[in-house]
Design brief:
Strand content: under 5%
Amino acid sequence: MKTLWEERTGPLYKQLEHHYDTPGLWETAMAEHRAVLKAIGARDAAGAKSAMQRHLNGAYKRFSKGWDALQ
């Protein structure tokens, strides 16, 4: 997690953030994060894993949707 968090301050992430950052994106991402946290709080390892996978897949889809426009 530390490595992933630190990547958020790198120049590539900052450029992507500038291109993709919208209120809707944040609402969706925060809802996904809450689902992960809720499962962790319930000590539901399988649920947390599933929620995190949904978040990562969703993030990938959101960020890759406009990737061609940047090339």
